[in-house]
Amino acid sequence: MTAPDPAQGRRQLRATDVKRLNREWRRRTNARLGLLVESVTQPFNVGSIVRSAAVFGVDHLWLAGNTTPPTHRNAAKTALGTDRLVPWEHAGTPAEAAAAVRKEGLRLVAVELTTDAVPLHEAPLDGDVCLAVGGEDHGCSPALLAAADAVTYIPQIGRVGSLNVAVAAAIALAEARRREWSD
């Protein structure tokens, strides 16, 4: 996009301009991106995660544990129709979901605070990757962490020790795409 003419001032993009801009970004996107969601039970969080998955071009969404399905009335309301744009399946236990991810040839990177986690900006997000997030109260289960190829965390400098799971998923998805687009 070109810089706005100061005489014209800034203006929001029209719908056709947004579509054109999105097409340009899609052309720059080659890697497959997946998302595994384990035991996220709040429908509004699931809906927000699905919407972020659609925004960042997630190829497949795996649900594990007791995750609320995107078809739940409140999840679908929050997703604003984007639940139809992201293929998803309930893949069973975290171990079964991890196996399904690997069967598709994706590396599994969990987003969690662990002793061996690396900051998100240093995480191995190149190539085909599937990010994993865990439930609202306890995060990723030990089974999911054991199945992950790597673990990353989102650096935080404030006085709060964690992020909402839907926000964390969006940040991690954005970083995965940003990294690809920066190469």
From TrEMBL:
It is an enzyme of class 2 (transferase). The keyword Transferase applies. The keyword Glycoprotein does not apply. InterPro entries: Alpha/beta_knot_MTases, rRNA_Methyltransferase, SpoU_MeTrfase, tRNA_m1G_MTases_N. GO terms for biological process: methylation; RNA processing. GO terms for molecular function: RNA binding; tRNA (guanine(18)-2'-O)-methyltransferase activity. Its EC number is 2.1.1.34. Residues 35-173 form the tRNA/rRNA methyltransferase SpoU type domain. Keywords: Methyltransferase, Transferase. Pfam families: SpoU_methylase. This is tRNA (Guanosine-2'-O-)-methyltransferase.
